[in-house]
Amino acid sequence: MKSVMDLHTHTIASGHAYNTMREMAKAAADKGLEVLGITEHAPAMPGTCHNYYFHNLKIVPREMYGVKLLLGCEANIRNYDGELDLSQKELAQLDLVIASLHLPCVKPGTAEENTRAYLKVMENPYVDIIGHPDDGRFPADYEKLVQGAKEHGKIIELNNNSLSPLSFRANTDVNDMEILKYCKEYQVPIVVSSDAHLDLRIGVFDDAETLLEKIQFPQELIINRSYDALKPYLHK
Predict the structure, then answer these.
(1) What integer pLDDT is reported at residue 234 of this predicted model?
(2) Among 11, 82, 157, 214, whose CB has the most other CB atoms within 10 angstroms?
(3) 96-100 and 63-64 as β-strands: parallel, antiparallel, unpaired?
(4) Shortest CA distance to 169 belongs to which of 181, 157, 187, 154?
C-alpha cells in the first residue's frame, strides 16, 4: 500500500499520549510522510485539552520539517443524534475532523442506536472521517454505515491500532472485514490511520495492510496514496 499520510495521531495535549507536536512532525518526516494529521481528543474525553486549545491552533504553522500539517480533532459523538463535543463554529475552524464513539463519552447503545449516531453525525458538514467504526462494543449495521458515508461524502477509517493485539476494542478484525466488503461494493473510500499516541507509531500500518492484502482491497479506494485524493473530502 502506498501511503504519504497519517491523518489520525495524538500529542501530549490529548492527555494520554507522549510526544509534542514538533516531535510527531519530525517522526513523520523521518518516515517519509508528506501529510500528518494531528487530531487531539475533543473536550469530552477525560484528561484532554480545553476548547481554547482548538481556538488557538491558528497560531501554529501548517508545515514542519517539510511535512504538511492538518490540525484538528477527534470529536466525540455524544449521543445517538450525532451531537459532538465541539460547536459548529469551532469545528469550522479546524483543518480536519474525525468523529468517533468512545466509551468514556457515550454509553454503547443497540446496533440500531449506534448506527443512528453514525448516520446523524455524517450529516454534519464539518466531519471528514468516521473514526474506528469497527469497535464491537458499539455494534452497528455496517452496510447502512457505508451507505451513509457514500451519501454524505465521508471517509471511513481503517484504524491500525484497532487491529493490534494490544487493542481493547472488540472483534475488530471481523468487523473490519465486513466494513471493507461494503466499502468495496459501494465504492466508498477509506483512510488507513495509525491512531498513534507515540511518535514511534506514526505511519505504522502493518496490521491494516495485512488485512487489505488478504481481501485484495482496491488501491484506488485508499485515500493514503496522495493529498490530491484526500482534498475533495475535506470540509475546507
Answers:
(1) 97
(2) 157
(3) unpaired
(4) 157
pLDDT tens for each residue of 177-211: 999 999 999 999 999 999 999 999 999 999 999 99
pTM: 0.97
Residues sharing a CB contact under 8 Å with residue 168, sequence separation 6 or more, in sequence order: none
Radius of gyration of the chain (CA): 16
Domains of the chain: 5-233 (3.20.20.140)
- Rounded to 5 degrees, what are φ and ψ at 14? -75, -10
Over residues 22-38, the pLDDT tens digits come to: 999 999 999 999 999 99
Which of 13, 162, 155, 121 has the alpha carbon at shortest distance from 73? 13
- Per-residue pLDDT, 121: 98
Nearest to 86 by CA among 117, 119, 55, 128: 55
Query: Taking residues 143-159, what's their average pLDDT?
Result: 98
Q: Give residue 209's Cα distance to chain centre.
A: 16
The CA distance from 171 to 173, in Å, is: 6
The alpha carbon of 219 is separated from its chain's Cα centroid by a whole number of angstroms, namely 19
- pLDDT tops 80 at residue 152: yes
Distance CA 1, CA 163 (A): 17
Cell digits for 218? 482496491
